[in-house]
């Protein structure tokens, strides 16, 4: 791997899989950087949680594509928790959602997760929304 960065692309598939997530993965690999994107990086028979954890530990930069559905996914939220626990540098991309809307998006899912998890997710989302990132509205550019 050398000194080249290794990017982990965290995303909610229904919102971003076939657009920004795939484009970022393609561009990173085109530039000869390492990149992990679940549907491109996992082979049949892989232990998915183990491979994701392995890739998070290996990554040098966590690219988090925060979208309207992101906060409804326990898998996405747990990835954010791992990035923070491992002190990984984070590049948030706010895709069709403003940083100020993240907490509201999470609260819409209250009751979907145990309260102990919600407390962790709230703290994580508060941290991530304050990291300088890219805000992008797909309809307006």
What does this entry look like structurally?
With about 140 residues, the protein is an alpha/beta fold. Helix content is about 45%, strand content about 15%. The chain is built from 6 helices and 5 strands; from the N terminus they run βαβααβαβααβ. α4 links the parallel β3 (about 60-65) and β4. The longest helix has 18 residues, at about 15-30. The chain is globular and about 40 Å long. It starts with 5 loop residues before the first strand and ends in a 5-residue tail after the last strand. The model has no long low-confidence stretch (mean pLDDT about 90).
Write the layout of secondary structure elements.
Elements: E1 6-10, H1 13-30, E2 34-36, H2 38-41, H3 48-58, E3 61-66, H4 74-85, E4 90-95, H5 102-107, H6 115-129, E5 134-136
Parallel strand pairs: 1-2, 1-3, 3-4, 4-5
Helix pairs in contact: 4-6
SS elements, strand count: 5
Low-pLDDT residue spans: none
Radius of gyration: 15 Å
How can the largest sheet be summarized? 5 strands, parallel
The CATH C-level class name: Alpha Beta
**Coarse structural class:** alpha/beta
State the share of residues found in helices, binned by percent.
40-55%
By CATH, the architecture is named 3-Layer(aba) Sandwich
What portion of the residues fall into strands of 2 or more residues? 15-25%
The CATH superfamily appears as Toll/interleukin-1 receptor homology (TIR) domain
The number of domains is 1
CATH topology: Rossmann fold
Report the principal-axis shape.
globular
Can you give the mean pLDDT? 91
Oligomeric form of this entry? single chain
Distance between the termini: 34 Å
| SSE order, one letter for each helix or strand | EHEHHEHEHHE
Total number of helices = 6
For the largest beta sheet, what order do the strands appear in spatially? 2-1-3-4-5
């Amino acid at each position: 791997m050398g000194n080249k960065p290794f990017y982990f692309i965290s995303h909610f598939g229904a919102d971003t899989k076939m657009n920004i997530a795939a484009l970022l993965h393609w561009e990173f690999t085109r530039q000869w950087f390492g990149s992990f994107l679940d549907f491109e990086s996992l082979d049949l028979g892989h232990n998915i949680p183990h491979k994701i954890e392995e890739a998070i530990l290996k990554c040098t930069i966590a690219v988090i594509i925060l979208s309207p559905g992101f906060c409804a996914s326990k898998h996405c939220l747990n990835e954010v928790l791992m990035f923070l626990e491992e002190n990984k540098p984070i590049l948030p991309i706010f895709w069709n959602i403003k940083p100020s809307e993240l907490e509201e998006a999470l609260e819409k899912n209250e009751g979907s997760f145990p309260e102990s998890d919600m407390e962790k997710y709230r703290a994580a989302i508060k941290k991530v929304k304050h990291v300088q990132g890219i805000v992008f509205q797909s309809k307006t550019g």
